[in-house]
Amino acid sequence: MNSRKSLADFRHDALPEAASTNSECLDRARAGDAGNLWVTADRQTGGRGRRGRTWVSERGNLYASLLLIDPAPMDRLGSLPLAVAVGVHQAVRSVLPLAAEPVEVKWPNDILIGRKKTCGILIEGEALADGRYALVIGIGINVAVKPENPLYPVTCLHEHGSAISPEELFAHLYASMAEMLAVWDRGKGVREVTARWREVACGIGEKITVNLPDRSISGHFAGIDDNGLLMLDIGGKILPIAAGDVFFRS
């Protein structure tokens, strides 16, 4: 059986408004949806980011979620956020002028333009009552509006010379995500995915601070391993980190 994805494998439902496109996808999964479904909304009334943070979701930006059902064996899912980040990076880079500031991925999967955040990605999973596993990839991209973020400097595509609309940007995202999911190939393409991620990564070799739930750790960003864990070099000792907020230090 061929598990690789193509554009024809995906469906898209565009909504004028949703509480959260991620929640909408999970609701549909619970109701039996077969997956490979994109849901977009012009605005969200209850958008959320990582660690329960609010994601301000006014009109003018792209709010999109992709529902996948049983996308890979559970032990291979760790590399999926890397594939997603590369797919989103590809879409954003393709709609900016060549002279725009660098588009980079900040671990694990924020997209930066000129070291300012323009996109956040929230991946959520749920074991369904019928035994299937639903995984939702939520993507919010600042196209025309840049809500203030107390944690990081922010930007939007229009500030960098792109006149793209959210709908046009979604067409690029739809295509690039299908390509990267095919490369990822249910986790079998992890080496190719990590190689592509490293090519667009922000700050490898630089001093960083990683905020964990209970403490902050500083060191040099030594890159990622093949499972997507951040490798933090602390005086020559490598500490693998599975989740945290990264801050670059001057």
TrEMBL record:
GO MF annotation: an example: biotin--[biotin carboxyl-carrier protein] ligase activity
Family annotation (Pfam families): BPL_C, BPL_LplA_LipB
Gene Ontology CC terms: cytoplasm
Keyword match Iron-sulfur: no
Alphabetized PROSITE patterns for the sequence: BPL_LPL_CATALYTIC
Reaction(s) catalysed (UniProt annotation): biotin + L-lysyl-[protein] + ATP = N(6)-biotinyl-L-lysyl-[protein] + AMP + diphosphate + H(+)
SUPFAM superfamilies the UniProt entry points to: C-terminal domain of transcriptional repressors, Class II aaRS and biotin synthetases
Domain BPL/LPL catalytic per the UniProt entry, residue ranges: 11-185
Keyword Ligase: yes
EC number of the protein: 6.3.4.15
Protein keywords: ATP-binding, Biotin, Ligase, Nucleotide-binding
Gene3D superfamilies: 2.30.30.100, Bira Bifunctional Protein, Domain 2
Protein name (record): biotin--[biotin carboxyl-carrier protein] ligase
Species whose genome carries this gene: Rhizobium leucaenae
